[in-house]
């Protein structure tokens, strides 16, 4: 809170008149004296702020890197993130790490009621954030984000930034995070598969590093003649291999897993996919989906779009 008086939350009366402390009695004064902590006050103030902005207990989309910790992308990909991110580089560590990175982001996005995107990590920034502090002698060496990496069409960082933007635009159309309905249909540790319903979408996640599942039979609550693939993390425009057919249709079958209906899906390894009832999509979401250009962009289209937006902003400022 930038207001100067905010630090006095809960301390107003004490600061005005120390005679107020006598109301606590002798034991209360002793307890307050030994338990007083500015760190505790700072923590509680931060919790109040998060509650007021509906950010309390939100799952972060990256590891906490403000004190030199590694980013989630660097933890999954390893040193190859610094040397093998060219678009035509087929390094397996990068391909597998980024596939899991996209899948985990989709899973976190779906189960959350909100999304706090830390500035910079949305395009798999390779370096940790290390703000100036006594431990690093107030160094500015890592106190920045290399946005030029995501703007370079020859690097895979563009795919990561575009995927982040795509998730946000998908939420604008479907409002899944604000939907009350969240039901976990399948959570198999052996198969490493998670299938859940969120709002009007069926989300299937396969976290297995090597095993793909053909005709994976899962229950669902969605009726209609067919379930339609909306998007998946393995699309080529996100940097994937394109193992799923875009907008493919899957017949809705009889009930399974305590759900009134079911569907058979192909789940490639390290991939997440989002499905929606075809007739429900046509009736409720098709117009808004088609009207949003980002839903139809490629990564290169998105980079060009951002360049245009940045140029317009700079012109407006000048």
Automatic annotation (TrEMBL):
Keyword check for Transferase: yes
Annotated GO MF terms: 1,4-alpha-glucan branching enzyme activity; alpha-1,4-glucan glucosyltransferase (ADP-glucose donor) activity; cation binding
GO cellular component: cytoplasm
GO biological process: carbohydrate metabolic process
Keywords, comma-separated and alphabetical: Glycosyltransferase, Transferase
Entry keyword annotation includes Amino-acid biosynthesis: no
Enzyme category, top tier: transferase
PANTHER family, per the entry: 1,4-ALPHA-GLUCAN-BRANCHING ENZYME
Full protein name: Glycosyltransferase
Organism, as annotated: Toxoplasma gondii RUB
């Amino acid at each position: 809170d930038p207001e100067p008086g905010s630090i006095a939350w809960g301390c107003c009366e004490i600061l005005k008149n120390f005679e107020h402390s006598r109301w606590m009695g002798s034991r209360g004064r002793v307890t307050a004296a030994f338990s007083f902590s500015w760190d505790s006050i700072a923590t509680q103030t931060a919790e109040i702020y998060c509650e007021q902005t509906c950010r309390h207990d939100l799952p972060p989309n990256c590891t906490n890197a403000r004190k030199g910790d590694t980013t989630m992308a660097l933890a999954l990909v390893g040193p190859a993130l610094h040397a093998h991110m060219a678009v035509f580089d087929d390094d397996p560590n990068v391909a597998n790490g980024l596939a899991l990175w996209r899948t985990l982001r989709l899973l976190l996005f779906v189960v959350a009621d909100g999304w706090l995107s830390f500035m910079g990590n949305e395009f798999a920034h390779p370096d940790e954030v290390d703000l100036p502090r006594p431990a690093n002698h107030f160094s500015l060496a890592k106190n920045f984000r290399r946005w030029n990496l995501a703007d370079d069409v020859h690097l895979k960082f563009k795919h990561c930034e575009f995927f982040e933007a795509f998730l946000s635009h998908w939420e604008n159309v479907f409002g899944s995070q604000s939907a009350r309905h969240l039901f976990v249909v399948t959570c198999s540790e052996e198969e490493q598969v998670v299938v859940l319903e969120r709002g009007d979408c069926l989300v299937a996640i396969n976290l297995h590093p090597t095993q793909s599942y053909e005709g994976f039979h899962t229950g669902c609550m969605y009726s209609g003649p067919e379930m339609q693939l909306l998007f998946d993390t393995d699309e080529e425009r996100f940097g994937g291999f394109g193992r799923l057919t875009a907008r493919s249709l899957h017949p809705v079958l009889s009930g399974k897993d305590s759900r009134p209906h079911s569907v058979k899906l192909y789940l490639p390894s390290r991939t997440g996919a989002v499905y929606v009832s075809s007739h429900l999509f046509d009736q409720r979401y098709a117009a808004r989906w088609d009207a949003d250009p980002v839903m139809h962009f490629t990564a290169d289209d998105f980079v060009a779009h951002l360049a245009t937006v940045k140029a317009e902003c700079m012109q407006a400022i000048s």
